Amino acid sequence: MYCHHFQANRCQSCQWLAKPYSQQLTDKQQHLNELMAPMQPESVLAPIASEEQGFRYKAKMVVLGSVTNPVLGIINARGEQVDLADCPLYPASFVPVFALCKAFIRRATLTPYDIASRRGELKYILLSQSLHSGRFMLRLVLRSKNCLASVTKHLPWLEQQLPELELCSVNLQPAAAAILEGAEEIVLTKQTVLAEQLNQVPLYLQPQSFFQTQPVVAASLYLNAAQWAAELQEQNGQFNQIWDLFCGVGGFGLHLVQNDQSLQGIEIAPAAIASATRSAAEMGLTNVSFQALDATAFANAAAKAPDLLVVNPPRRGLGAALCQDIERLSPGWLLYSSCNAQTLADDLTRLNQYKLLKVQLFDMFAHSSHYEVLTLLQRK
């Protein structure tokens, strides 16, 4: 991928961009192999590669510049404001939307927030697009409600200019700190979710719910997990109960569960649980339950294990307490998806009752050292 910002040393966010993509993938696989070697995996599958550009369907842009000349991008290490509205990581469809966002900033007189003086209102623009429908979710992160009336007044103009806009909201982040978003979200459109669909599974994204920035590779991740689970049943007989901890909007569980199985999904965010419940209803799944609970507390209170446990924790991993409860409950099979191979390796060393059967790398984050991993473990 060629990027003139990288070549000019204005933006180095893609730390590995100078490496050929084939070498990036080789280096990631080698890193993963070294971390997994002590667990002696039975099978290390070929990595799932990313497109080299146009793969990020979620943008997080700092709003800089002025009302009359807004900049959407970053402040680099030299303190320069860099406009990344033409960043090649995003699909071409983002370019005209960023232009409309700048026009909207001018029209609604949304003053970019200045960190040094702690003045101004608009801090970030968060833009997501559905791979399935092509429609957009736009979130404006504001310091206060001072500009809310102006945003509401001029939103019909933006909707007219951008018919693909499905959802628009304001997030309030009053802290004078580098925090992306606050707790309060004000949805300004009739639609409150952005509909996505991966592998024929409907998924509903709310403004503060987590979803992968790379939907194409995410679809491969979910599909492979479902195939691995199906193979388990063919080889070892039917299993009845599945738990999906850190389930988010239900991506893993809804791909895995079949009509004759039960699924229990656990996620701390109520908005994500509402989305997962809606998806399950649309799919006609009747033996499915999603609950807004802490995954570690849920496992700690449980007395009986599922047949298959699916976990997709944040970067910090499962941690000692949850690993201890997994060992206590002792489910027969464990599917562990991780965005941090180091914490994955740490957790696997704690799960002494399990042997590692399969490992596969999914390159969600081309041009960086980050990647996703899917593993399958069996109770010894």
UniProtKB/TrEMBL annotation:
> Cross-referenced CDD domains, in alphabetical order?
AdoMet_MTases
- Chaperone recorded as keyword: no
Specify which residues bind S-adenosyl-L-methionine according to the UniProt entry for this protein. Answer: Q212, F246, E267, N312
Q: Which domain of life is it from?
A: Bacteria
Q: Which residues carry out catalysis?
A: C339
Q: Which PROSITE patterns match?
A: SAM_MT_RNA_M5U, TRMA_1
An example of a GO molecular function for this protein is: methyltransferase activity
Q: Which UniProt keywords apply?
A: 4Fe-4S, Iron, Iron-sulfur, Metal-binding, Methyltransferase, rRNA processing, S-adenosyl-L-methionine, Transferase
Enzyme class comes to transferase
| Family note | Belongs to the class I-like SAM-binding methyltransferase superfamily. RNA M5U methyltransferase family.
Protein name as annotated: 23S rRNA (uracil(747)-C(5))-methyltransferase RlmC
Query: Which organism was this protein described from?
Result: Arsukibacterium indicum
What lineage is this protein's organism placed in?
Bacteria, Pseudomonadati, Pseudomonadota, Gammaproteobacteria, Chromatiales
